[in-house]
Specification:
This protein is an alpha+beta fold. It is built from six helices and eleven strands. Helix content is 22%, strand content 23%.
């Protein structure tokens, strides 16, 4: 599932290409993906792009917003005068859009009359788009349930307090969006490796120094993820249809059987809360 760096990359791409454009028409091909009245969006100008954790918000000039979550395989793909015309949304190969996995199509119009399209694709169909009043954003259950977010409003004091209150193993703890928003499996694994912490340890067992190191590691790994445009491990692509590069820089995630670059220990895999955990038993204690 895309995490904070991937969704932030999507947000920045959408901000670049669709802010300032007007929604001319909307085609909904799969009803369960789209909630709300699309008529409330027609003729409105897109004025801002926001992100909260793994959620996106498209703000419009008429006081309405589109909230969205790409979930496991969702993709926002923009095609206009500024981008390539055709590509395969997963393999980055020529193929005309829309595809059978395209469920919502926004036709956009720029001030100079130029037309463009924004496609929402989703193979697994777990993603969603919802129309709401902008003023009611903070009343939506998804957004109200989010914990503080690294690189935005999570302080070291909050982080220390949240950790001290839980006996949950630190790896799944980091992935709990109600406690801390934005961190998923890839970046939790690599953050714990960078901080030299065993992913099985209870959150409250970390010393003050370990908390400081983990906080810094989380921020460093997320910043690197954003710098590399996210990780295209499976279906994730940016809004231009290109792949991220963080998958070429994984520290331990997906590295089972390889040697740890710090001490040459063998990286092992275990399962925690139904998700794969990768770590080096020699240097993560």
């Amino acid at each position: 599932m895309p995490e904070l760096p991937e969704v932030e990359t999507i947000r920045r791409g959408l901000e670049r290409y669709i802010v300032g454009k007007t929604i001319a028409s909307i085609e909904i091909r799969l009803g369960k993906i789209f909630q709300g009245d699309p008529q409330q969006l027609l003729g409105a100008q897109i004025i801002a792009m926001r992100r909260y954790g793994k959620g996106l918000v498209i703000d419009l000039s008429n006081g309405m917003s589109i909230t969205a979550h790409v979930k496991m395989t969702g993709q926002f793909v923009y095609v206009g005068p500024e981008t390539r015309k055709n590509f395969h949304p997963k393999l980055d190969l020529p193929l005309e859009l829309p595809t059978k996995h395209t469920h919502v199509i926004f036709q956009l119009r720029a001030g100079n009359g130029e037309r463009s399209s924004l496609y929402f694709n989703d193979i697994r169909q777990f993603g969603w788009l919802k129309v709401i009043k902008t003023s009611e954003l903070q009343e939506q259950p998804f957004f109200t349930s989010l914990g503080p977010e690294p690189l935005r409003n999570l302080t070291i004091q909050q982080f220390s307090h949240i950790l001290a209150s839980s006996s949950m193993p630190i790896k799944p703890f980091l992935m709990d969006q109600h406690k801390i928003s934005g961190i998923g499996n890839i970046y939790a694994n690599d953050s714990l490796y960078l901080a030299r912490i065993d992913p099985r340890r209870p959150a409250k067992s970390l010393t003050s120094l370990e908390v400081d190191n983990l906080f810094a590691a989380v921020e460093e790994v997320l910043q690197k993820g954003i710098a590399y445009g996210g990780a295209s491990e499976t279906n994730y692509i940016n809004v231009e249809g290109g792949k991220g590069e963080y998958q070429n820089h994984f520290l331990v995630y997906g590295q089972k059987g390889k040697r740890c670059p710090r001490d040459q220990g063998e990286i092992v895999r275990l399962v925690q809360a139904g998700r794969s955990t990768f770590y080096c038993p020699m240097c993560q204690t």
